[in-house]
Amino acid sequence: MVLSSIAGKSVAQSFIYESFRNKIEEKIVSNSSVQLDEEAKKLFEYTKLNLQRMKRVEKTFTVSEELNQILSSIKTPQHWVIITEGWCGDSAQNLPAIAKITSVNPEIELQIIERDQNLEIMDSYLTNGTRSIPILISFDVNGNEIFRWGPRPKEAQQLVTRLKSEGMEHDAFVEQLHLWYAKNKSAALEMELKNLLLSL
Q: Considering only CA atoms, which of 43, 103, 42, 97 is closest in space to residue 72?
């Protein structure tokens, strides 16, 4: 059940996980950053690095037995929608794990939409007034929102907030954030999704 609209707003285009990742890969292979302006070049380099991150998470992440049991107990369809972009570092660290999590139970369908092509939808799911991504929204079969998660695990958000308050520059705190992701190995994401599912 791929939703053509979310919260009454039309979806420009949507992807399953494999097609989204393939789109990122094709974009990197078929393009070069040489002809791009500074901002576009930066996003291109982020995207290239994020593809490596996605592949690493795909190889290393395994759904825990506890979460597997919770997911397997879901008997009615859920539709999980993720708003994201290929250049988003938090998405690269979380999206592959979420895709594996949804694959446990065929009752859960994952749909990925791009933020910048769907700003009207994005603006219904702002974080403190900002278009932060990734955002995961779970719907029931009638299109009612079940839960929402994002744009990063709470522990990671606390780290970013602290480093910013200490005056750390963007590139430096982003490096610290990805070191946190590498050490955490999606455990915080798993715990938060587990608690959300248990609370239903």
A: 103
Residue 34's alpha-carbon distances to 26, 42, 44, 45, in angstroms, are 17, 11, 10, 11
pTM of the prediction? Answer: 0.94
Tokens at residue 139, please? 């719907």
Strand segments, DSSP code E, in 9-107 are 9-10, 14-15, 78-84
- Which amino acid would we find at residue 20? F
Phi first, then psi: give them for residue 103, nearest 5 degrees: -70, -15
pLDDT value at 119 more than 90: yes
Position 5 scores a pLDDT of 67
CB atoms under 10 Å from CB of 1, counted, come to 10
Structural domains of the chain, ranges and CATH numbers in brackets: 5-152 (3.40.30.10)
Say if residue 1's pLDDT is above 60: no
Above 60 in pLDDT, residue 70? Answer: yes
SS3 content of the chain, % helix, strand, coil (to 5): 50, 15, 30
Q: State the average pLDDT over residues 142-165.
A: 96
Q: Count Cβ atoms below 10 Å from residue 104 Cβ, excluding itself.
A: 16
